[in-house]
UniProtKB/TrEMBL annotation:
Name the UniProt record assigns to this protein: DUF4192 domain-containing protein
Pfam families listed in its UniProt record: DUF4192 (PF13830)
Bias-annotated ranges (Pro residues): 1-10
InterPro entries: DUF4192
Region of interest: Disordered: 1-20
Superkingdom, natural source: Bacteria
Length: 342
């Protein structure tokens, strides 16, 4: 079963987690918390003092006895003392009288949460779209309409940052789909011909391409892709590039890592994919981070950095725990720049 967690937002260039009271606003916020519009899914929000701390989305199981990540949910909630859960079932049927779809599954989830002392509210809606009607599992007569997802505070914030919610998880995954095999093979041949460069020169090459990404409208050339793949294959360079996850160039760097995740052949694809995962994790997009980690670990089974990030993401560890890595990377990057200039 696919389960998509979102880690709490990092302090980098992000607003605090949204404070939501109305179910219609809560439901409208989900696509911008997840990065896509879920369908036939259970969305769980962990809430502390009316503020959403973390969100988890799972595809609906066939029935209440099917596997559902209850253990993962309760472990995640346990990390937030005083937390409550606000959940949403999206799609899969229509209300029948006073009975909402998936009531048995919702009862199962709420029973387990209650056993751990966690209060919960659960709602149902056919779809996350403006004007869709939502219902309360406690009282199906308690109903309202979903706010416009495109007009929410989160939507505006995402738009300012150049981000948007994809229509589906599959559409988001397509963002990282590898290029055709003939292009990958062509670049792999180029990579084999390139000599290794000093770490400082390689790091400068990557930074120059990050800076170019802001204005560049054309696709990277095969020689550019090969040169960047070789540069990032130096773990010192790759680790120093973690520093780009914060600061003025973070968005441009994430765009470059996204392109290279598509464009680099395996096993070199693992390095930009891991950097993309780090960037996405730090800004709270756990779904993109998870997809990037899938690409990294497929391209390079046993890849250490992606393995560490996967463990952190699966355990819903706060992105603050990654900040020491960013600080170390920044110090390493400064040393590289200093050594090259001497």
């Amino acid at each position: 079963m696919t389960t998509d967690p979102t880690p709490p937002f990092s302090p980098f260039d992000e607003p605090s987690r949204p404070r939501l009271h109305d179910p219609g606003d809560l439901i409208a916020a989900v696509p911008h918390l997840m990065g896509y519009y879920p369908t036939d899914a259970v969305v769980i929000n962990v809430v502390v003092d009316a503020t959403i701390q973390v969100t988890m989305c799972s595809k609906l199981p066939v029935n209440a006895q099917s596997q559902h990540p209850i253990e993962q949910l309760t472990a995640m909630v346990a990390r937030y003392p005083g937390a409550a859960v606000a959940g949403i079932v999206v799609g899969d049927g229509t209300p029948t009288g006073d009975t909402l779809p998936r009531k048995e599954l919702v009862t199962q989830i709420r029973t387990v949460l209650a056993e751990h002392g966690v209060p919960s509210e659960m709602f149902w809606t056919a779809a996350i779209t403006a004007g869709a009607r939502w219902h309360d599992y406690d009282d199906p007569c308690h109903t309202g309409v979903v706010s416009d997802p495109n007009s929410s505070v989160l939507a505006v914030t995402a738009a300012v940052q150049g981000l948007h919610a994809f229509d589906s998880r599959e559409d988001l995954a397509a963002l990282l789909r590898p290029d055709p095999q003939d292009a990958l093979a062509r670049r792999a041949a180029l990579i084999e011909q390139l000599p290794e460069r000093p770490a400082g020169a390689s790091y400068r090459l990557v930074l120059d391409q990050v800076a170019r990404t802001v204005e560049r409208s054309e696709a990277l050339s095969d020689p550019d892709i090969a040169a960047l793949a070789v540069a990032l294959s130096d773990y010192m360079v790759r680790d120093a590039c973690i520093s780009t996850s914060a600061g003025d160039h973070a968005r441009a760097a994430e765009q470059l890592w996204t392109e290279l995740t598509r464009q680099c052949p395996a096993p070199h694809r693992a390095e930009p994919a891991a950097l993309l995962a780090m960037s996405a994790y730090l800004r709270g997009n756990g779904v993109l981070a998870s997809l990037a980690l899938d690409r990294a670990q497929t391209a390079f089974p046993g890849h250490r950095l992606s393995g560490l990030l996967r463990t952190a993401l699966d355990r819903s560890i706060h992105s603050d725990a990654l900040l020491p890595l960013v600080r170390q990377a920044t110090e390493q990057a400064e040393r590289m720049v200093s050594d090259q200039s001497e």
